[in-house]
Specification:
Layout lengths: L2 E7 L3 H19 L4 E4 L4 H7 L5 H9 L2 E6 L14 H11 L2 E9 L12 H4 L3 E7 L11 E2 L4 E2 L6 H16 L4 E6 L5 H14 L6 E6 H10 L6 E4 L1 H12 L9 E6 L4 E4 L16 H13 L4 H17 L11 H16 L1
Parallel strand pairs: 1-2, 1-3, 3-12, 5-10, 8-9, 8-10
Antiparallel strand pairs: 4-5, 4-11, 6-7, 11-12
Helix pairs in contact: 1-10, 1-12, 6-7, 8-9, 10-11, 11-12
The protein binds adenosine-5'-triphosphate.
Adenosine-5'-triphosphate binds next to loops.
Amino acid sequence: MPKIALLPGDGIGPEVTYAAVEVLKAADEVFGLGLVFEAFPFGGNAIDAHGEPFPEATRRGCLAADAILLGAIGGPRWDEVPRHLRPETGLLALRKAHGLFANLRPARVLPGLEHLSPLKPEIARGVDVLVIRELTGGIYFGEPRGMSEAEAWNTERYSRLEVERIARVAFEAARKRAKRVCSVDKANVLEVGEFWRKTVEEVHREYPDVALEHQYVDAMAMHLVTRPSRFDVVVTGNIFGDILSDLASVLPGSLGLLPSASLGERTPLFEPVHGSAPDIAGKGIANPTAAILSAAMLLTYALNRPEVARQVEEAVAQALAQNPTPDLGGKATTQGFTQQVIAAFRKVAA
Ligand code: ATP
């Protein structure tokens, strides 16, 4: 019985999380997944109720779960509290508690929604790229670091273990997709890049069924704009991943469409890329697509049911083509849209 810890959070977080739960329940009905859900306070609401963003009961609930589904946290109400009590501090603690070293951000241009992309429709068509960013190493954490009057310095550093484990995440993810990995580095200039490339190639020997190519990060930035549909899984270090995942995230054309997953040593975490959108919270018009697609990633990466996830994605694509929420120019409410997804899912899965 897979246990899903729900952290609905703040703002539109609960609205979109429970929309995703309804879709998961529909998938459970059809495929008999035996899912068990339990919700925990997290973020601003936890600060209000318990005086801290990541209370002990939430900590324990997440560690005992097979997957965590998070909505969104924060909002102007908690901007004034001391830093260690901010909702975002809870998110950092959650990531740390679960050793989440891999961040997965898919950017898919859904069929029929090419017009939303800032790229020409013929370039946007068929884009389905998964950017995997190493999240806990590299120059953002490397020592020594510092600043004096005269200079400042940071250190890009990766250990063999860090590169091997992120490479494995990429090859495993590729096996659930189109079986192609593009590793991005700067091996022509940086020793870390040379080491990264060599280590990824060594891990690749365990995955002969997956195709591997390498790109320099500068070339990759161009390719992601000029021919993004050519890529499947893209794996890279922390700083390059920070930049390239943001670049890729604009390709589908709307923040409300982007899911994410963070994988690591303990319970994996699934959450929309968007924030708590306080400006539309409680109005019933939030687009639940990113949360529903995050639930689809949960099916793939936590429960190893990629075929069920694909049917959820197909249902979402159909519902978006039919009548989307107002952010995409439609008239559907969060609830109405969710019901459209469930109806489409039942047909796709039948
Ligand atoms: P954060 O720093 O937490 O990411 P933010 O204010 O920068 O927060 P969001 O909360 O994601 O970003 O909101 C940015 C804009 O996008 C807002 O106008 C919000 O209403 C809109 N938006 C975000 N997510 C959705 C969604 N799921 N459905 C509809 N509109 C959304």
